[in-house]
Write a structure and sequence with these properties.
The structure is a single chain. The protein is an alpha/beta fold. It has one domain: 3-Layer(aba) Sandwich (Rossmann fold), CATH 3.40.50.1380. The strands form 2 sheets. It has a 5-stranded parallel sheet, with helices on both faces. A two-stranded antiparallel sheet has the order 1-7. The chain is globular and about 55 Å long. The termini are far apart. The C terminus is likely disordered.
Amino acid sequence: MMGLKPRKRIGLVAHDNKKLDLIEWARFNRGMLAQHDLVATGTTGTMLGRELDLPVTCLQSGPLGGDLQVGAMVADGSIDFLVFFWDPLEPQPHDTDVKSLLRIAVVWNIPVACDRASADFMISSPLMTSSYERTVPDYTAHKDREIPGSESSGGADDGERAEEAGDDDPAGLELA
């Protein structure tokens, strides 16, 4: 379990065709958003900060790694809630990052709103301004699993095999 305080850290992301939707939603919910800490990808965060006159921590633009930065914050427990207005009709050059962000939010059981209706329901929930015990999945078995070739499995790791063979390429990356 992870205890969330009444003041949440909200990640805000929007694709280009959805930025105005997110800004309109944020303007409507400015009073509620002002009670929380806001983190956003670059362009979206700059627009939100200017429009709402609220502090917004701006990361990189999505295509430059901002989606991945938000995902890393989800994974390390520093994002409590994600509003990600993504465009289902427009292919993105960083679609794999988008999918990764959505996947990691589900992996760590973070509430995600991908459209205005979901965001409205979530932000109007009494849980937004109260403490909440979020269940954090137990990945101990995954972390402690036996990895083939590791010392725990009785075999030498890749670096040891390379040293024994006198190989100058300990990573095992043969470059032609």
